[in-house]
Design a protein that fits this description.
Belongs to the FrmR/RcnR family. The protein is mainly alpha-helical. It has three helices and no strands.
Length: 86
């Protein structure tokens, strides 16, 4: 992306991604340990929810940052493109 300034949500998004990483590491260990499928599925669900939440916070913050009125070089094409991932 073209914007270098760190957005307010970056610390929160980073924490969410680290949480997802922890869930994913747990899933990998559970599979290696041949844990019950339902338990693995539950952890996989936690991974996808954590990633989805991180993505949502990140994208919404980016859009809000671009539209805050202080952005002189507003790139509508970039906003249109990033909204595809919401």
């Amino acid at each position: 992306m073209s914007h270098k300034k760190q957005h307010a949500s970056h610390e929160d998004v980073s924490k969410r991604l680290k949480r997802a990483k922890g869930h994913l590491e747990t899933v990998i260990k559970m599979i290696a340990d041949e844990r019950a499928c339902v338990d693995v599925a539950r952890q996989l669900h936690a991974v996808t929810k954590a990633l989805s939440a991180a993505k949502s916070v990140y994208i919404h913050d980016h859009i809000e940052h671009c539209l805050d009125g202080n952005h002189k070089d507003l790139d509508l094409d970039e906003i249109k493109e990033i909204t595809k991932y919401i």
